[in-house]
Amino acid sequence: MASFLFDSISLLFLVFSLFSGTLSADRTVKTFIFRVDSESKPSIFPTHYHWYSSEFVDPLQILHIYDTVFHGFSATLTPEQAHSLSDHPSVLAYFEDRRRYLHTTRSPQFLGLRNQHGLWSESDYGSDVIIGVFDTGIWPERRSFSDVNLGPVPARWKGICQIGVRFTVKNCNRKLIGARFFLKGHEAASRLGGPISGINETVEFKSARDADGHGTHTASTAAGRHAFRASMEGYAPGVAKGVAPKARLAVYKVCWKNSGCFDSDILAAFDAAVNDGVDVISISIGGGDGIASPFYLDPIAIGAYGAVSRGVFVSSSAGNDGPASMSVTNLAPWLVTVGAGTIDRNFPADVILGDGRRLSGVSLYSGRPLKGKMYPLVYPGKSGLPSSSLCMENTLDPNMVRGKIVICDRGSSPRVAKGLVVKKAGGAGMILANGISNGEGLVGDSHLLPACTLGSNDGAAVKAYASSTSNPTASIDFKGTVIGIKPAPVVASFSGRGPNGLNPEILKPDLIAPGVNILAGWTDAVGPTGLDLDTRKTEFNILSGTSMACPHVSGAAALLKSAHPDWSPAAIRSAMMTSASTFNNLIQPMTDEATGKASTPYDFGAGHLNLVQAMDPGLVYDITNNDYVNHMCGIGYGAKAIQVVTRSPVTCPLKRPLPENLNYPSVAALFPSSSRGTTSKAFIRTVTNVGQPKAVYRVKIESPKGAMVTVKPSKLVFTEAVKKASFIVTVTADVRNIVLDDSGAVFGSISWSDGKHVVRSPIVVTQFDPL
Q1: Which of the listed CATH numbers 3.40.50.2020, 3.50.30.30, 3.30.300.30, 3.40.50.720 matches domain 348-479?
Q2: Active site residue 383
Q3: Catalytic residue (one of 135, 271, 350, 616)
Q4: Is there a catalytic annotation at residue 757?
Q5: Is 135 in the active site?
C-alpha cells in the first residue's frame, strides 16, 4: 500500500507539474479522448470518475466519462500533457477530438412497403422497436411524432427526456420517448479558440430542439407517423410517413447549427444510447477531412462496435463526396454503410433558351412563375473571375445582373446561397450549372428566386450560348411533381463510392437506399433553404444526401428487428444485402447518375434496399464479436489497439487470420499487381438457414470478366438439425490478362437459390500493391 501511495503521489506531482507549465512546450489547449483499461482501477477509488480526476487530470478539465461502449474520458489538455498521460500504464490510446459533419414521400412505397401486407403488417410497423437518432435534434410538435394510438413506452426503456431551452418533459411522449443533447466537446472547442464560435443562442437551442432541420428530417424519415396532406410548398403532395411508423424514437443531439459535431460528444451519445436501451442507431455523420482513420482511432467506429457487440444495429451514411473513387466513409465492417439512390419521383423544370432549345433540369422553386417571359441571360464567369462564376457573396456586380437570369457554377458555397446572392444583386433568376465533378446528378432546392439546376452537359451548353450570342435570353418553366420516373433507382452522383480505402477486403458501401429529393419533417426554426434570411415556414422539406438514405435503412432495420427479434445486427444487414436489387424499374441494370453508364458494386454495394425480399431472405451471413476481433488481427492490428475498440483484452491467434474470411455477404478478391501467371484465392463463408427448416440451395455463379469462380460444395442441404452450412469460394485469375473497368476492378456474383429465395453476394476482383 505504501508503494502504491508513493507511486500515486509521484504521478499527481507529475500531473501538477504539467498543468503548472514547467514541462510544457505547446500551450495550445485542445480536447483529447483517452481510452483507459477499466480493469486497472485501484479499489480505493469508488468510481472511475474519482480515479480519473485524482490520478489523471483536474476534475474541471474532464468533459465526458465513458463507461459503456468505451472506457475512458475526454478532457482539455495541451498536446504535451496528453502525450505525457499516454505513458500511464492504464492508458491504451488517446486521440484528439475531431469535428464531423452531417451528410446532408414516396420512398416507403418505393422500397416495396404497402399497408395491407408484407413487412409493415408482419412487423406491426416496427412497434416497440426503439431507434436512436444522432443528429441535430428534433422539432417535437410535428405530426410525424404524434403518439396517437401507440401503446405504452417499452418497459425496458431507461432513457430520459432532458430539459433544456424550449424543451421540457412534456415534449416527449409515447412516440418520442427520449431526448438528450451533448455539447461539452463543442463548447470546449469554441472556448479553446478552435475553428468554431460558441453556440449562438439567438439561432440555436441549448436543448434537444432542432434549430437546423436535418435531425427532424432524418428522424421522421426513419420512423415518422402517417401525416396526411403533406407537401413542401406544394411539391410532393400526399401522405408522408417514415419507414417504421410505429417505432419509438430517442433523439441524441450531437450536431449544432453551423458548427458540426465533435467526436467526444458523439462517443458520449453512443454510451448513453446503449445504456438507455435503443435497438437501432441512425448516424448520418462522417469525417470532414477526407482521411479514414484506423478503427482504434475512430470514435464512430469504436462507439458503433460497442453498440453492435450488445445487439444494437448501427446504420451510417456513406458520405456525399461521390462520384470520386474511394470516397465512401464509415468503413468499419460492423457498421452498415448506406449510399444514396433516386426514387421514381422528380421535380422537373426546363430552361428555355432564346434560340428555342429546352434544357431539362430540376427545381423546387414555389414562388411566382415566370410564365414564359424571356429575360436577358448573363454568365459572370465570362469575366474570368472564378468567384464570380461561383456567385460567391459580394462578387456580383448589380449593374451586370439586375433584371437578368444569372448562370452560376456549382461548388464552394451552398446551392441555395448562390440564389440568395443573385437575388440580393437584383437578378431575376438563376441557372445553376453542374461542373464535371457533379456530372449529370441533379438535386432540387427550394430557392428564394426562380432557379433551375442543370447537369454538366446542359450547363456547358447554356454557358456556351450566353457567351456566343449577342443578346442571349432565357426563361424557366417549372413543372411541379412528376411520379413514375424511369429509370429508377439510379445511383446518386454525390453518393460515396468504393473501393474501401482503409479495409479493401470488405466491400463498401454495403447497399444504397432512397436519398434524392426525400420529403420528411422539418423544423420551424428556419425556412426550407436553411438560410437565415429565409422566413418561410414549412412542416415538411425535401432534402438529398446519404444522410437521407441512412435513416431509410435504420427504419428498415427496426421493421426487421420487430419481425425477427432474435436476429443479430449482422443477420439484419445480411438480409438487406443479399436481397438487394441491382436492377431499375425498367428491369435493366442500375445506372450511375454521374455518367449515365451501368453502375457497379463500388457504387451501390450489394444493390438497392428491397424490404419485401429482406423480410424472408432464406439464408443469412452471421458475424460474431470474435469474428470481428479475428478480422482486426488479420488486418494487422495489435492486441492493445484492438482492445481500444473492444474494451476487453484480446489475444490474436498465433497464425494470422485472413481478413477476407470475415463472414461478410460480399467477396473482395485482391490480387497483387506483381502476380505472375494464374493465381487463386479462396474465401470461406458460412450461412444460417432462417427460412423453412428443410431446404436445398444450389449455387449460381456469374464470374467476373477474365476470372473464374468456383464454389464447393455447390449444393447446401438444411434440415431440422442442420441449420448452418459452410462453403469455399475460389477466385482464379491471371491479373496480367484481366481488363479492369474504369473503377479498377471487374465484378461478378454468387447466388444461392432454393427455388423461392435468391441469396446473392457480389464479387469484386481487383489488383493492389502490397505494402
Answers
A1: 3.50.30.30
A2: no
A3: 135
A4: no
A5: yes
